[in-house]
Amino acid sequence: MNDAIISVKNLNKTFKVPHEKQDTLKSRAVNIFSKKSYSKNAILKDINFDIKRGEFFGIVGKNGCGKSTLLKIIANIYQPTSGSLSVNGTIAPFLELGVGFNPELTGRENVFLSGIILGMSRKKIESLYDEIVDFAELREFMDQKLKNYSSGMQVRLAFSIAVRAESDVLLIDEVLAVGDAAFQKKCFDYFQKIKESDTTVCFVTHDMGSVLQFCDRALFIDKGEIAGIGKPEKISELYQLENLTTSKNVSKNNIVKSIAVFQENKKEDYILPNEFAELRIDTKIIKNKKFNIGIQIFNEKNIYCFGTNTRSANIDPFNLENGKIIFKFKPQLARGNYYINVTLVSKDNIEILEQHQQAATFRMKADTKVEGVVLLDHKWIIDKA
Amino acid sequence: MRITKHLVQRKISRFDLVKELAVTDFKIKYQGSLLGYAWSLAKPLAMFGVLYLVFTVFVRIGSGIQHYALYLLLGIVMWTYFTDLTNTAMRSVADKGEMMRKVYFPRITIVLSTSISATITLALNLVVVFIFMLLARIPVELTHILFIFVLIEYFILCLGISLLISAFFVKYRDIGHIWEVILQLLFYASAIIYPLTIVPVRYQKFILLSPITQIIQDSRYILVTKETVIPMNVLHFPYIFIPYIIPFVLLAVGMFYFNRAARNFAEEA
Hints:
The complex is a heterodimer.
Chain A: E1 4-18, H1 25-30, E2 38-52, E3 56-60, H2 67-74, E4 82-87, H3 107-117, H4 122-136, H5 151-162, E5 169-173, H6 181-196, E6 200-205, H7 208-214, E7 217-222, E8 225-230, H8 232-242, E9 248-249, E10 256-263, E11 277-283, E12 291-299, E13 304-309, E14 324-329, E15 336-346, E16 352-364
Parallel strand pairs in A: 3-6, 3-7, 5-6
Antiparallel strand pairs in A: 1-2, 1-4, 7-8, 9-10, 10-11, 11-14, 12-13, 12-15, 15-16
Helix pairs in contact in A: 3-4, 3-5, 4-5
Chain B: H1 8-11, H2 14-29, H3 37-58, H4 68-95, H5 97-100, H6 108-135, H7 146-171, H8 175-189, H9 201-209, H10 211-223, H11 231-234, H12 242-262, H13 265-268
Helix pairs in contact in B: 2-6, 3-4, 4-6, 4-7, 4-8, 4-10, 6-7, 7-10, 7-12
């Protein structure tokens, strides 16, 4: 029995990028005899996978890797250049919240407009109208124009409509990037609910936390090719290894929002050993809990290269609200990839509040060829006398 | 290569979508200006005022026709519909690029809804024409019902053209300027401001081959005065069918071309 609801076979997508943009008839006419010069930009290369009915399927990858293009092809917005895609059910045809919203119309009018664009019938929206408005908690604002809504209110209304567009497959593109914490919780609750139902979800993100939390299976796309497919834990590992020197979100617990390595004048994807780099740790509200923070740097052979913490630097345990902790360091390390572990320990050093393995990564490019682990400040002096 | 068609189409209530988009379009068009719809009526009325003055006082080419004022007004209202509809529909698909990249829906609904929105304006303008008809004491006749068939033909003509030029416009923005020139030519070639009777008989045939002239002349014949020259007066079998067939041919060609081009609208618009 074939229980695949979406099956993608040998799918390729190429965008033609004209070298000289010819979008007027005149330039076409003038250049009619000259050969058209295109550079072909292959966005997706030979993609093969199936999504099973009822699965919560994640698609992850870096910006520009082609994951959104893939979702657009599944949604029938873009056409594949070659290969096939078959969908054995109905698909909610939208990728983002608030599609079709018009700021000049009232909230009420927008519910109908957006709902119909998302594929609902007018009758159905009428029957769901009260439910939509109550879920969004916007009853007293429905006769106001949408342009007078705050962005949070717009998102609430949009989400409230979108979740009622029933279909076998739901496509979601980075929805969680919007809204405040309370709203995100609402989204997560909703996700949990559809995870338990038999709706199939295809979910594009680069937040590994939500992939680990929700997805049954995930697909990792790198530069338009499948770099891995399988259990979320496996994909998460692959993704972290691949995702060097770029910032990353960690959301296992509620304290740390993001951890990333920065360096001024950073060129390409490596950092330089003789300039200061910063490890930035953004934190959320911490209630009455003072803590110490420690970091450990490992290289790709899993050798423990360096470690320190706030206590050994004689910093008293602290707490902060929506703050930032910056660890400034001169990365005098040999060439290669490094991982940073971040640990938050309670003020009495007993309880581990949070631990982030391989929370951030960076790549070193040494100016000189040295071997070993560290890049010592060095020079040779040959005294012939 | 095999691309299985999506079942997604089935999920979308096209009728609701077209209706909702058309009503929204109409609402937005007249929102934010004090007199709203009255402004869209001001344009044809102002044009009518000037032309009426020119052709009855200065040049006097209209004096031979019974109810020339109405004859002229109806022509201008009908012509305004054509320019309005084709101009807005031409840009409609390209303007919806952002939305098309976020949600799938049948692209043809965009053109359909702008066409319907323009038709609502026409209907309101025609109400004004009917008021003038009552004032001019033109008796209401059963044959006036035939006007509905003329309107249907007109809608088909406009839709066919709109499908072609809106799909073209996504690729070649030049069509915007070209269409402006074509509209100007059609305006003078279509016997809107002058009675066909002042044109030598041997040229009347050619002018009446154009469905726009045929539609406007037939409307005038049905609603205003039987002195209007219509295709039946000057065209013979089989040529008489040409102006009536063109709209359907244009619609078929337009649909075919539009649907083929629509696959790539999201990328190109």
